[in-house]
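Regression report. Comparing outputs from two consecutive submissions.

Submission 1:
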Amino acid sequence: LSRKHIMESIDKTLKRVGTDYLDIYFCHRFDPATPVEETARAMDDLVRKGKILYWGTSEWTGAQLRQAAAACDRRNLYFPQVEQPQYNLLSRAKFEADVAPVCNDLGMGTVVWSPLASGVLTGKYDRGIPGDSRLARMDWLRDGLYTEEKLARVRAFGERVTNLGVSRTQLALAWAASHPTVSSVILGATSLEQLAENLSALTVRLPDDLRPELDKIFPA
């Protein structure tokens, strides 16, 4: 996230995408080797040059977001508008205890990634790992998600969903999107059928008595 790399990357990106500007430009992962004020100044320059409209962060901690806020306040720079954290029923602690409260204090939105825990929450892996699946290809994902403890929670989730008239996919997406700090969720559908199922989560309303049950199955 040094000034040099940001300036080089934006021009390459605009050329590759074939557009004059980006609506939003994310600083993906905090860069401990670069002063946060240097990153904020570079992003501010991109806004003022019209190459981006807004900038955001991804996978930053609450403390790092506060560092950025302080730097922007000191120098009257454009402040990041959105954070992109991981958030799903199996990954709650960092977002709920650290990131969401800070984003709320700073007036930032969040666009969460992996709301389905790479498909684990859908039940796709209840009976093993399909050969063409993401977990079959990525060791680090498999090691973190494919544990008997987590699979047992997902199966219990599936049993609870049975009588609600919605799929596990729809309920998991609706749950993530219902957090008051979440602006949107990032989807990863690989077919039109999956996309249609995912988008139908917009119509799902979580019963009041369901949240405490999900908290027991997936404690934060």
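Submission 2:
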Amino acid sequence: KRTVTTGCGQGTMFGDLMEELDRIRLPAGPRLTEETLYTVMDRVRRHESIYKVAGAVHGCALCSNAGDSRGEILAFVEDVGRHNAVDAIAGWMWREDVGGGDKIFYTTGRLTSEMVIKCAQMGIPFLLSRSGLTHMGYEIAARIGITMIGRCQGKHYLLFTGAGRFLRSPATALA
């Protein structure tokens, strides 16, 4: 089967991709708190190094969402291609035998269908970006159950999918 994706302009994947995605089961238990979201946003903002000097690169971070280390950056990669950065983190997870069920994935790039699919294949339930999203990325995230948050900058964000996994602070829940 041929699936047209929403990556860099438009891409094509072959195989029964949607059937494969329907078999992915993300863990039901993990939740992302607004406090942890802000911690990740701040740590990534302070961590980017090549971008601050040269610009024109994408950064991706794998962060903890467990225990006292919530929001801690476990792996960080910058590359001119956002897919290369995602793939490097996926490789690091495989090499280090790190599971994704209690992790948060942050990217500076758009949340396209490919980014959502890669996050799902890594078993990560939370996908964040300082950028926006595509319609197909949104549809796949909603279908799989990924909590997808975009436009993460400062204390601002847009929660697109997975509201049931996201816990707002009492002070902002009333706003």
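Expected: both submissions complete independently.
Actual: both completed, but the second showed a warning that disappeared on reload.
Relevant detail on submission 2: Strands lie at 2-5, 11-14, 32-33, 58-64, 73-79, 103-107, 126-129, 147-153, 156-161, 166-167.
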